[in-house]
Please model this.
Amino acid sequence: MNKYVIRNVLLLLFLPLIPVQHVFARNLTGEEIIKKMEANQVQKSARLEGVFIITDKFGERKKTFKLVSLGTDRTLLEFTNPEEAGQKILRAGDEIYLYFPEAEDVIHLKGSALRDSVLGSDFSYEDLTGEKGLLDIYDVEAEGMETVNGRECYTLKLTAKNRKAVYPGEKLWVDSELFVLRKAYYYALSGRLIKEMEIRKVIKVKGKNIPVWFVMEDRMKKDSRTTFIINNIQIDVPVDPGIFSLEELSW
Amino acid sequence: MVMELKVLRSKRFSVLFTFLILMIYFIPSVHAKTITTVKITAMAGVTKIDDDIGISGIVQSSLIVKSSGNKNVRGYLELAAYVTDTVKFDIPRLYIKARFPGFRITAGKNRVSWGEGFLFNAGDIIFEGAGLLRSLSYDVLRTETDWLADIYIPLGLFSFAEGIVLPFPAGSAAPSSSFTVVHWNNARYGGRIVTQLAGIKLEAGGLYTKNTVTPYISFQGHLFADIYSDCSVILPEGAVTAIVDAVKDSLTITAGFMRQISVQAGGIVTVRMETRVMPYGLWTQTETASAGSDPGYGIFLYPELSYAPDTALNFSVRSLISLIDLSGIVFAGTGWNVYQGLDIMVQAGLQFGESGGIWGWNRNGGISCSAGFRYRY
Model:
């Protein structure tokens, strides 16, 4: 159960990074836009604190955490809510380690386990390691322009290149001015809409537009919603590379 | 005599109580910030006893106080109470960790997790992780702690060396007073090195106790699933022939794999299988196996299947099987995180096998069922 929760948080945590890879602009090819936006959105480092709120017909459950990242492939996350306090996830390159303080145990994920879905079905661990971009997984097609919550957006249709993709199809609405994701639909192979995500708030930090409020709705479950909020974020701050180690994970 | 015992207990309790108060005072003083967590579990159940049905109930609580303000010092105190028709108190964890340039030290009562394995772990030579368990009903099966002093030396991002001293013999209770003196030769001394090579986690270490040395090796890698294996032996001091005999008696190999599979509906299925093999153990059924105890059979299996459809619900089935006498125990359970911090749990256990088996159907506890709540805040 705890591993499940950790995986879901991991999924949500990387939403701010992954969607920006979808950005499209009129005068550039899809590949050029994605490469440009990936380069634009990479931060040297980041420290953030956040919460994700699971809402169902019984009410809300909150999971709080803090996270430190360096470049695109090193992340250390720690839960701070009482139920999972002290549980950590370390990502360093293609290595992912989980730490469970109650058992004083470190679990190493490796190999094909990285291709497993990060449980909400949106991304795999391999996606999170940064080894693959969207262009490796999807063909991208521009569909036109639409307005989402008063913001003009490009609409993009993504089709998976092979069956390894967790979602065979996606539709994205990308803010044409800020170049951040505003809305996304995720489809099953049958074409059925499975999940819907909306970004409610984007803030500017050191000249970069960063989504800080996401709402994910599972269209296959009634009254089910997950809200992810970043309360505090600092980017391009000094981070000691040594903290992305087993020593820090088990501290 | 009774009076003396009461006085003695009273003095011990006073010493313990004073010690606890000092610790509660001391831990926050490491730095002003503390984190307090309370965990209460209330369970009630029915179980088969002889040819009748027994009813039981327990409320278990833990108060955890952790320091959080100093990035180089950690204090941790856990007080536990077990309330049935009697009341029992315990201190499962009580330690201070301090980090210095190049190493860190832990002193107090805590757990260390050596080797790999969820239920069977021959590398867990400190807490005898290759032994059988009487219950499979907990989220985390092995949480034993002990009094220890531990030094951890990082050797790289994914490598480290660790040395440990456990002053009290295995299975002994907590020190009866603050001034218990143990002869150095009765303590346990151990060490291990953990590293990573070509994506495979490698671990080797050993534990020295009076008259014996227990070395072990462990690895964990990935090939379609997480796979891991451990091997340990207990070597006595003495002649070579005695050592050869001891290797035969104690050689223990554990191995397992774990695979997580996402399902389209949005959930995850976890499959785990572990085994414990003692090549020179008993490979025929003994008539003297007592209920739930380990007669040293050559092979046991631990299969586990769980399904978590979302973040709030999970189902699991676990089993511990003796292939030698074809007996076993199966636990099925579900947990539902209804509200923030509140879980509802329902579990059922069933033993199978002949009456002479470790978990024979006719043994006490042949069938059991329990339900309850857990609240963390």
Q: What stands out?
A: The radius of gyration of chain A is 18 Å. Residues 2-13 of chain A form the longest helix (12 residues). Chain A is about 15% helix and 50% strand. Residues 1-9, 15-25, 117-124 of chain A have pLDDT under 50 and may be disordered.
